[in-house]
Amino acid sequence: MTEAIVVGAGPNGLTAAVLLAQAGVKVTVLEAASEIGGGTRTSELTLPGLLHDHCSAVHPMGAGSPVLQSLKLERHGLVWRQPEVDLAHPLDGGAGASMWRSLAQTQADLGVDGRAWQRLFEPLSSRFEALADEVFRPVIHLPKHPLRLAHFGVRALQPASWVARRWRTEGARALFAGVAAHAFQSLRTPTTAAIGMMLIAAGHRYGWPVAQGGSRAITDALAATLRDAGGVVQTGRPVRSVADLPAADIVMFDLSPRAVVDIMGERLPGRVRRALGRWRHGPAAFKLDLAVSGGIPWTYPPARRAGTVHLGGTFEQIDAAERAIGRGELPRQPFVLIGQQYLADPTRSRGDVHPVWAYAHVPNGYPGDASAAILDQIERFAPGTKQRIVATAVRTTTELATYNLNYVGGDIATGANTPRQVMLRPRFALDPYQLGVPGYYLCSAATPPGAGVHGMCGYHAARSALRYLGS
Fold first, then answer.
1. Do β-strands 3-7 and 250-253 pair in parallel, antiparallel, or remain unpaired?
2. Residue 83, preceding bond cis, omega within 30 degrees?
3. pTM above 0.90, yes or no
4. 163 domain residue, yes or no
5. Number of domains into which the chain is organized
6. pLDDT digit string, tens, across residues 298-344
7. How many angstroms separate the CA atoms of 457 and 440, rounded?
8. CA atoms 365, 42, 309, 87: torsion sign
9. Cβ partners under 8 Å of residue 24, min gap 6
């Protein structure tokens, strides 16, 4: 019987394992940690009964993922919960802008810029499945929907700062800036528009939902689907060299490129080893979880009903903060993401005490404590929050890198979203999942289409392996 080893039990590793097992391959997943899930883990980080997502929290790409949809994870308990407002972006003085799943509601909320927002995102969101079919794969491919891809690509390759020129108001520009900042790059960098446009298009199609019970519900559903197909997961099984790998016909790595180089060494062809060794990691996250009595008292009212809140001020302020991070500096007012998942999923709270998820963008490997900067940003837009906090939990960049070995220096995207790495991740190749050694593959977020809980990196790597096996 054909056998496969998958190293790493994050969403991409588990997705690859499921697809291989469903094709009749005997699959064993080896996970170094004591718990599976990678970034999709949830636990009581602050107080008993309060559920906090460890890293990934809000899932527009997960809800819109072709492969996760095809696996019917709801059979194993995955339930998407939608907040009333998907995204709020407060500005100083109590103003702000909001994104709703309803494009019409968003258009109305944005006032004079609503029509321009609608013109850009209606064609993308209404035909999101066709767009995803093109974007959720390697850049080098024969397009099935060339006009759809061209319509997206001509803007996606631009810096977010260019796309933002279509809006006149501070609110609309800031709203787009906050989403584009998920790239962890200066908004003047080419291709930063792509991430902003995809997340917004997915939001208008599927919303920005959370998984009921926490992001671990995604992991649990994938693991149960794998068990149904005969696959096995072993935790506490680090792989440091090829000698740690059982004999197998297929080996799949849900790891960072440099980790694969460390494991395989001279077994990799020189060109592949050099390419993977040049892989660059990007800025980091500094995580702060809060237990807040009564929730956060935002001065911008829609933020009180929003599952996600972006804190950074205007487009120009966010860009300045991201450029500082790129220079290795922590700005006084960093870009901060807030998750209020309990608004969509009340099971995460206990009484009137609610879990609030937050992280700031910081330089890679930042050795300091960014907690005060995060709290100051929250207080800037919600005065009185500090008096409501009853417990906190901190995870530094070093702790993030220990928690998940793919998060080198705290880089939760498993690689810098530079134009080169966005276009040619992890190296220039017709099949970027192959490692140049028959039967060996890379399936992590360092491969196309990149970071996010969508499983598509694992899907394409598994498809490549199945072609090799003749399936």
1. parallel
2. no
3. yes
4. no
5. 1
6. 999 999 999 999 999 999 999 999 999 999 999 999 999 999 999 99
7. 15
8. positive
9. 1, 2, 471
